[in-house]
Design a protein that fits this description.
Number of helices: 5
Oligomer: single chain
Shape: elongated
Radius of gyration: 17 Å
CATH topology: Ferritin
Order of helices and strands: HHHHH
CATH superfamily: Ferritin, core subunit, four-helix bundle
Structural class: mainly alpha
Bound molecules: hydroxy diiron-OXO moiety
Helix content: over 70%
Strand content: under 5%
Length: 169
Amino acid sequence: MLNEKIAAALNLQVKLEAQSSQFYLSMASWSENHGLNGTAEFLFRHSDEERQHMLKLVRFINERGGNSVIPALPAPKNKFSGLHEIFENLLAHETGVTESIHKVVDLCLQVKDYTTHHFMQWYVAEQIEEEALARTILDKLNMIGTDTAGLYLFDRDLGTFLPQDSSAA
Ligand code: OFO
């Protein structure tokens, strides 16, 4: 049976992953409406991945005898000034998600729940990849600056970028 504190922490993580999915969906939609179709594709895919992250948690909680709670979500931000703001938001969001995951891991150690600790290692590794990717993208955007030809190519390339799909692990 899942420890109550662990169940609550995992359910909070369910909410965060669901919020990630909605947030990326909102940014994808904004990008699509502003001629940034490559960025939109990238963010639509990312939104789907976040939903998989949420589902993986929901299934784990139930499998371990807990009750997963499907939460209500606040509406995500839906106005952005451009690509820089989008990816700065994305990195800030992922940094917050990482902190939350580390809190769950810490709690697992406190209550000696080694099974959930093992399960959470997948999320720890995923966050390293996601933060690194967001930083790389921001580095590229900073390099391009306001060069429109550079931004055009950046958007085009992002549309075909396929991160390793680790959500199926
Ligand atoms: Fe679920 O990895 Fe981002 O938030």
